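Researcher: Structure prediction, please.
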Amino acid sequence: MPRLSKKTMFAIEAVLDVAFHVGERPVRSGDITERQRIPKRYLEQVLQHLVKSGILTGQRGPRGGYRLARERRRITLGEIVRVMRQIDMVPDPLAEGGGSVIGLQVVRPLWRELQDSMLLELDKITVEDLCQRAQTAGVPSTAAERLDFTI
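Model: Predicted structure follows.
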């Protein structure tokens, strides 16, 4: 089964945390680390890539932090996964040369199809959907009334 890397999972959790907890002030990375238990060394890298890719915006300074760059209904899990795949240093075994005939002609094409199908399914799930799931699950929000907030 195609799997998501640890950094990709951290990225999804960080974006969801920002979407779920942002209010008048941006969400601080330290707060994300505390709530999601994401190691700071991973989180900072992930947040930088999410800002560069236009998923988050960052604000520097003592009142700084992160916000979604777009409405949460316009950001999909597929987009976040694609961004993180670009930065993951793990080589894609499907892109590597060599292998057996059956591997090259049957197994690898099948795996690519599965990956493509997974991304298409992830494109159907928005950050808004995840926020609604979090609310339904009873996840505490620092700005519960803000769940209808859009940028």
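Model: The radius of gyration is 17 Å.
Researcher: Thanks, that helps.
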